[in-house]
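User: Assemble these into one structure.

Assistant: Restating your components, then the assembled model:
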Amino acid sequence: MENKEDTLFIRLIPYIDRYGILLLIAIMLLILHLLQPDVFFSWRNITNIFKQISWQSMLALGVFMVIVTAGIDLSVGSILMLSLMALAIASRAGLPWQIVIFVAPAVGMVCGMINGLGITILRMPHPFIMTLGTLYIFRGVGNLISGGVPIGGFADQLRSIGSGKIRLEWLYGEGATQYIPSSLIIIIIIFFIFWIFLNQTKIGKWIYAIGGNPEAARAAGINVNRILILVYTLCGFLSGIGALILAGRTGSAYPNAGLQSELDAIAAVIIGGASFFGGRGTVLGVFAGVFIMGLLRNGLNLMNVSVFWQQVLIGSIIILAVYIDVLRRQFGTRK
Amino acid sequence: MKLFVSLITALSVLFSFSAFSKTILVSTKGPGSGNPFWAAVEQGAKDAAAELGVDLVILSPPQESDVMAQVNQLEDQIAKGVDGIAVAPTDPSAVAPILDEAIAAGIPVVYIDTNGINEGVTFIGTNNINGAKLAADYICGKVPKGSDVAILQGMITQTTGQHRAEGSHKGLTECGLNIVAELPANWDTAQGMSVMEDIITGNPNIKAVFASNDNMALGAWEALESAGMTDVVLVGFDANPDAAASVAAGKMSATVAQFSYNMGKYGVENALKLANGESIPDNIDTGTVLVTKENAADFM
């Protein structure tokens, strides 16, 4: 990143590189505020955005780690659905909520581990194939165990994870309606933990190393297979957490849960600036990517814009984000 | 980015509201473009809104399976502040919490097309018992008393499937027909065909068949045709374009159309009534109509 050339623009590049996405968010916030001055910055709307992105952000974070290793996980939406169904069945069977709460993350971890083992032990030519297979398998199993019908009726304690409200009466006075969604607190904590894990621990650095240059990583004595299994397992775990949040949000385990959400997760990671070829990307970027997609959908919903436009715009933003990345790399190689 | 800004501005101007009239949100399961059923719902809602001077917001998820998109849209619109909601739930249990929140916040809700699980919410949609009875009565007029007839049932775990089975059974027995088979084929064309083949094998004298939806009826037609039994009176349900074409071509005898237009129309009317503090009945039938060769062209 060091540049001897003294033009202002070149010196700005590292900052745009690092904080450009925050600038994009700021611009979007401003536009949405100008277009919907009464509604957009209302407490209720802002909390809505965070509630809406909460479960998807878990999938995106998981997929991000996988993408950092130059892999891909197409099965996260199906893992979410299977975890959700397992949770619902455990709940219906009358297990106490203290146990049910662990069902979704545990099932998610097992699914993720299956992906990891398949990729490493079965030596699949690319994670795309293993996780494409499990995309079908996990959703199929979810439908098998649930009979393909929605299952509802969860304990309040269980639902409070996804739909709980931390009232701010101490701040706004008695009877205040402002609150912080508990799901927001959970995703902040989890993002923080994974930020530390990826940036401050040895294993975190190995994960980046594997994606950047697997041969070098092997030569350096890193057990690549073991790290990969860990990464896919954690990705599954996060999908399970996503299921837990979604269970609270909807109060129902339904057969179409998480359908195609793997694509949203991948899109958020790419928008957030991670490289599809591995080794590059930040946790903050993932959050920003998820947030941008949430903002866009929320803003267009508020303006009653057809969902078809939402599809077009999200697709355009993906291409734009990657094109910016291409330009950036050109600058990088020119120096 | 400039293009984006101007696009968004243009759209927001296009969709901006006048300040004084009430705003009603109609949330459907799928976009009207591409699905005539929802297009008719939207048209009904628009006509009612124009007549009543209501500001109308119509939103739908990109496809029926995208449950969370509908939940998010409802949430965003409630935050924005609408005066009433008419919603066709993609998944009744998943949209229930957000609608409870709306009701608690004083925003009245009515269900259209598909009933929900929230207590005390009015359902505006097809009375499937009456609709199936209509089909049965048509069959009664076409075949002699005492003839062998069969019913292809839908997914019998679903209310719609149960109601259509119930209405057709009642109608066919009341006019003295002999029901020789009542079997589920789960709304599916391929299953409709194979179940029909089995029924034909066991009951070669069959004179009429009621299939609880058009997909099964189209499957049943294939089975009847290959058995050379094209004179059997075959009636479906839903009046989807393929079935209407089949009726027009003289293959299927009839099908039953739902008035999805009325779902949009009554939805807006009744959500507005609630918003104005009036009370409405718990169930509102949007009606059904028989589609035969005479009017099949309207449904193709």
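The longest helix of chain B spans residues 36-52.
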